[in-house]
Write a structure and sequence with these properties.
single chain, mainly alpha, 7 helices, elongated
Length: 188
């Protein structure tokens, strides 16, 4: 049961961070460039990825109660690491961070810290957390949902965000985008 307890703590830390971000970083942006639909689509997809396997398979709970394997421990550590990465990415954006897509007048383009290496460290953290969740579940359907759905919806949202940033910052954004990758330095 020790693994399940550590996993529970990791998931609570992750969910708690996301709840805090949605409660306190839900700032208004100019109506002309505000985009909120993707936030709600993400929440629905993320909820389905988290709970879909549980709803679809009666053997899910029994499998989850099984002893923790090294793979499940790796998954739990990934969830904890994602909380650290997500927190750092939000902290580095400072007042520029919001769960709603949009750029406020005078808002600077952040290209330092983690953003010097990749354009979307916060989204990378979310993907890492779902990879960890999938590994921790140790169930084929749960793992599949966690590995496929969140990255797909995040790729869509990244496209929306990048178009918005290019429109707002022009050549400054395009120059930064040429120097960095979306998610993984030197690769992706």
């Amino acid at each position: 049961m020790g693994g399940q307890i550590v996993f529970g703590i990791a998931v609570l830390a992750w969910a708690g961070l996301e709840i805090l971000l949605h409660l306190f970083y839900n700032r208004r942006v100019r109506e002309g460039n505000a985009e909120k639909l993707s936030k709600y689509v993400m929440l629905v997809v993320f909820a389905f990825a988290c709970f879909g396997a549980r709803l679809a398979t009666p053997d899910f709970a029994a499998g989850f109660r099984a002893p923790f394997t090294p793979v499940r421990w790796v998954g739990t550590v990934l969830i904890l690491a994602s909380v650290v990465l997500r927190t750092a990415s939000v902290a580095q954006l400072g007042g520029s961070y919001s769960v709603n897509l949009g750029v406020r007048a005078g808002q600077p383009l952040v290209t330092t810290g983690l953003y010097r290496l990749i354009r979307h460290p916060g989204y990378l953290a979310i993907i890492i957390s779902f990879v960890g969740l999938g590994l921790s579940f140790a169930h084929w359907l749960a793992t599949s949902l966690c590995l496929l759905l969140p990255p797909a919806v995040l790729a869509w949202r990244m496209g929306l965000e990048e178009r918005m940033l290019e429109q707002a910052y022009g050549e400054e954004y395009r120059s930064w985008a040429r120097r960095t990758r979306r998610l993984i330095p030197c690769l992706l």
